[in-house]
From TrEMBL:
Keywords: Iron, Iron-sulfur, Metal-binding. It holds the Pfam family Fer4_21. Transmembrane segments: none annotated. This is 4Fe-4S ferredoxin. The lineage of its organism: Bacteria, Bacillati, Actinomycetota, Actinomycetes, Kitasatosporales. Residues 1-28 are annotated as: Disordered. It comes from Streptomyces triticiradicis. Residues 31-60, 62-91 form the 4Fe-4S ferredoxin-type domain. GO terms for molecular function: iron-sulfur cluster binding; metal ion binding. Gene3D superfamilies: 3.30.70.20. Residues 13-28 have a biased composition (Basic and acidic residues). It comes from the Bacteria. SUPFAM superfamilies: 4Fe-4S ferredoxins.
């Protein structure tokens, strides 16, 4: 007999929930990371290395950006970056509506 869940299947969870609410997970204690665009060579190593459960790094035109609401602060992208242009962003600001629209249009916010 199947086990019933109290959570409807259409309720987002994990990354999808963070995208839907445009907020970071409450249990994340590390600040997000940021990419210094003036130092970045746009190699996309960080984008490819970002763990799928976070999926926090996106191409935005000629720049690669980290969405702070999706970034747990883990060091994976830092370790992947060949030019060391990724830093802790303790003073991060919320992501603008245009970028959230980009995420929605590209379908990168859905599992």
């Amino acid at each position: 007999m199947p086990v019933e869940s109290n959570t409807p299947s259409d309720v987002p969870s994990g990354r999808d929930l963070r995208i839907a609410t445009r907020s970071r997970a409450d249990n994340w204690t590390k600040p997000p990371r940021r990419i210094e665009t003036s130092e970045c060579i746009t190699c996309d190593s960080c984008l490819r290395g970002c763990p799928e459960q976070f999926g926090a790094i996106f191409d935005r035109g000629l720049d690669v950006v980290i969405i702070p609401e999706l970034c747990s602060g883990c060091p994976v992208c830092v370790l992947e970056c060949p030019v060391d242009c990724i830093y802790v962003d303790a003073d991060w600001t919320p992501t603008d509506d245009a970028m959230w629209s980009h995420i929605a249009l590209t379908g990168e916010g859905t599992a």
